[in-house]
């Protein structure tokens, strides 16, 4: 009998779960939460009990007893900077996410729900590759604004999972490889992996625009907009995250719709599409310098990577740097489960979360 693992990935309007036995998925489910259902709650944390009960109901519907689980792993929420890999969910982490959240974010519920179910059945709960994974080199932290500290927020879970998967397929050790991984989704982040560490990233506000985020924008013009009196702080933040990028230009977040618009002769859609490819390629080029040009491979992943046309055009731009591999999809439930499996098998060690005084600023 293999290890049985429940993976939980809470999103803003859904909770995705899967049960794995070793590397084999037994079943999965995406539980959708309507706007009318969610508006009953004052905060994301208040949704805890509702989401937990729905998860337990799915287990029952699949005739799976929670007592048969060996471990539970949740999507890592927005914590103070943490290292890559697994963290045991403990009281300190729960207190931080529940009572002192850095940002109210649905992913915070991953640890909270996992911990509660795990306590009920006497197993460990983990988070794996939180969005707050921060392994930047010191030189990568320096900004021209001394008042601002550069922290790392990225699609670490899928980025590392695909880097590890690629290394395994090549019969190489991830810790011996230099890789650039571009996660292409609703948000776009690009990471430089050097000998098993994400030493630098192009985050979703530092590089390419994406379907719903503005990416890098001229700061002086943004300051002018902020002080123009035309926009509130909330409106400006929405322009950056939610109404920026492709949706701001073309009123859609679906890259397939953009490609259809181009096929129908829409020249503006073509320009925006080409600009997206251009900016992602530029971000990959930036990170190639971080690795001194010594890049074993470039990996394109995320939902947008299903577009063969886009990945072909992007590959053509960057293949002079290194060979390009496409591993499309989010792969987050698989990544969570495989991470927990490595812990159970003793192939990786987990860390204990500690609330450090210097973590509390998170500027």
From TrEMBL:
Xref: SUPFAM superfamilies: Actin-like ATPase domain
Documented EC number(s): 2.7.2.7
Single GO MF annotation: acetate kinase activity
Gene Ontology CC entries for this record: cytoplasm
UniProt subcellular location: Cytoplasm
Top-level class of the enzyme under EC nomenclature: transferase
Top-rank lineage group of the source organism: Bacteria
GO biological process assignments: acetate metabolic process
Keyword Plastid listed: no
Keyword terms of this UniProt record: ATP-binding, Cytoplasm, Kinase, Nucleotide-binding, Transferase
Catalytic activity: butanoate + ATP = butanoyl phosphate + ADP
InterPro entries: Aliphatic_acid_kin_short-chain (IPR000890), Aliphatic_acid_kinase_CS (IPR023865), ATPase_NBD (IPR043129), Butyrate_kin (IPR011245)
Main location group: cytoplasm
PANTHER family hit by this protein: ACETATE KINASE, BUTYRATE KINASE 2-RELATED
Family per similarity comment: Belongs to the acetokinase family.
Protein's name in the database: Probable butyrate kinase
Organism: Paraclostridium benzoelyticum
């Amino acid at each position: 009998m293999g290890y049985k693992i429940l993976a939980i990935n809470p999103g803003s309007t859904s909770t995705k779960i899967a049960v794995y036995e070793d590397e084999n998925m037994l079943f999965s489910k995406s539980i959708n939460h309507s706007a009318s259902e969610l508006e009953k709650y004052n905060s994301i944390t208040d949704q805890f009990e509702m989401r937990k009960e729905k998860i337990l109901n799915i287990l029952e519907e699949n005739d799976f007893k929670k007592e048969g689980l060996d471990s539970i792993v949740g999507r890592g929420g927005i914590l103070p900077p943490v290292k890559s890999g697994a963290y045991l969910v403990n009281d300190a982490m729960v207190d931080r996410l529940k009572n002192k959240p850095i940002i109210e974010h649905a992913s915070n519920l991953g640890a909270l729900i996992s911990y509660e179910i795990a306590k009920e059945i006497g197993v460990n709960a983990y988070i794996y590759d939180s969005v707050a994974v921060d392994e930047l080199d010191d030189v990568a932290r320096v900004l021209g604004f001394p008042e601002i500290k550069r922290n790392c927020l990225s699609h670490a879970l899928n980025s590392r999972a695909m880097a590890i998967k690629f290394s395994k397929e090549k019969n190489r050790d991830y810790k011996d490889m230099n890789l650039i991984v571009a996660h292409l989704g609703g948000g776009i982040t690009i990471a430089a992996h050097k000998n098993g560490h994400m030493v630098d990233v192009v985050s979703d506000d530092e590089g390419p625009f994406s379907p719903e985020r503005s990416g890098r924008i001229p700061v002086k013009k943004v300051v002018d907009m902020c002080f123009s009196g035309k926009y509130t702080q909330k409106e400006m933040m929405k322009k950056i995250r939610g109404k920026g990028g492709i949706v701001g230009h073309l009123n859609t977040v679906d890259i397939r719709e953009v490609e259809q618009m181009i096929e129908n002769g829409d020249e503006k859609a073509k320009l925006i599409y080409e600009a997206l490819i251009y900016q992602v390629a530029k971000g990959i080029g930036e990170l190639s310098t971080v690795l001194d040009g010594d890049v074993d491979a470039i990996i394109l992943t995320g939902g947008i990577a299903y577009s063969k046309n886009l990945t072909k055009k992007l590959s053509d731009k960057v293949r002079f740097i290194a060979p390009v591999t496409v591993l499309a999809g989010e792969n987050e439930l698989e990544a969570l489960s495989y991470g927990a499996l490595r812990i159970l098998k003793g192939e990786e060690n987990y860390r204990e979360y500690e609330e450090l005084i210097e973590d509390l600023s998170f500027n």
